[in-house]
Write a structure and sequence with these properties.
The chain has 341 residues and is of the alpha+beta class. It has 7 helices and 14 strands. The strands form 2 sheets. The protein has an 8-stranded antiparallel barrel. A 6-stranded mixed sheet has the order 10-9-11-12-13-14. Mean pLDDT is 82; it is low at 109-118, 278-290 and 336-341. It holds the Pfam family ERCC4.
């Protein structure tokens, strides 16, 4: 696998090089300002793959360890001793879509018209955060450019939405709540629900070191349980933020970053030329079995004689009963092979 750099045969172009990136069946082709982002981010202009010459004048062949799309960017890792890592980023600047080839050294220059997070996270002027109606002492986000809305969430305590769809959520835990939910098994079910979202996280209002000062529960049991959950749900980080104030700040910046990602991801995939999946797609028939809504489970439970409350979250055993019942139904459905004998 190689990254190919050739001279641009068009004498009228202000971009003297052609860049062939081995992504997809035919690769991606860009006109580029330079052969590598050494001192500045390299501006690139995407063109059709047919623009790559039949007999190109190759300037450089760069063997690659990997070339992988990650969201709105392509990670390029060269197989050489120096100048290994770079990234082709699809972004917006000056009111239009732009592509920059950047390295760790030039990353700041490759983000035109985007403010680095200082007081305002991810450049979002006014972020709307949905606060779960059952959150007793919610974060106020008083020092940030945030509007909060109280309503019921199917999972998580704080969330951001786009076009009416939840794209990210954060579950807040004090250390005592974390230990209680971990030992009772509720945390496992909570992470299972969070895993149905495009992005999710758990934030803990304490230090990880405090786990090892516990006297009512064996610290090793808690540490092993947290590690096991991170292996089982690797896309849901469990973040220890030392204090409630820091946890609130982390939650704000995480949700702002998720909101920005959700707005740019689909457009970037179209530009890269890969199949686009919206950050939070409508639930399909197949997904509905794996991730039902709380209303669906409540209706099913009542139809099967199980008592459930009219509002609020359902107990973990209700969710498990729903999964068990539908797993058995799937195994006996025509056309679906049974496991075992």
């Amino acid at each position: 696998m190689e990254l190919l750099i050739a001279r641009n045969p068009d004498p009228d172009s202000t971009l003297p090089y052609l860049l062939h990136v081995p992504i997809g069946a035919d690769g991606l082709v860009f006109r580029a300002k330079d052969t590598w982002p050494r001192t500045n981010a390299v501006y690139c202009h995407p063109v059709e793959a047919t623009e790559w010459p039949e007999h190109p004048e190759i300037v450089e062949r760069i063997p690659l360890k990997t070339c992988t799309r990650r969201g709105a960017a392509i990670d390029v890792v060269a197989d050489r001793g120096r100048e290994q890592r770079s990234q082709i980023v699809f972004t917006r600047g000056r009111g239009r879509e732009m592509v920059f080839w950047q390295s760790p050294r030039t990353r700041k220059q490759a983000r035109p018209d985007v403010r680095l997070p200082t007081a305002r996270a991810a450049g979002v002027v006014e972020l709307e955060i949905v606060v779960d109606a059952h959150e007793r002492y919610p974060y106020k986000f008083a020092g940030q450019q945030v509007t909060t809305v109280r309503r019921g969430l199917s999972c998580g305590d704080y969330a951001v939405t786009l076009d009416g769809r939840t794209v990210a959520a954060v579950e807040r835990k004090s250390l005592a709540d974390l230990i209680s939910s971990l030992t009772s098994g509720r945390l496992r079910f909570a992470l299972g629900e969070l895993a149905t979202l495009p992005r999710a996280a758990v934030v803990v209002e304490d230090r990880y070191s405090q786990v090892f000062t516990l006297d009512q529960v064996r610290p090793a049991t808690v540490a092993d349980g947290l590690a096991e959950l991170q292996i089982r749900y690797p896309t849901i980080p469990i973040v220890f933020c030392e204090t409630r104030k820091l946890a609130e700040e982390w939650t704000y910046r995480y949700l702002a970053a998720a909101h920005t990602w959700a707005e740019s991801e689909t457009a970037a995939l179209h530009r890269i030329g890969l199949p686009a999946q919206t950050p939070a797609e409508p639930v399909t028939d197949q997904d509905a079995t794996a991730a039902p809504s709380t209303a669906d489970i409540r209706a099913w439970a009542r139809a099967n004689g199980i008592t459930v409350p009219d509002r609020g979250r359902l107990r973990p055993e209700i969710h498990q009963a729903w999964r068990d019942a539908h797993t058995r139904a799937d195994q006996h459905r025509p056309g679906i092979p049974r496991t075992g004998r």
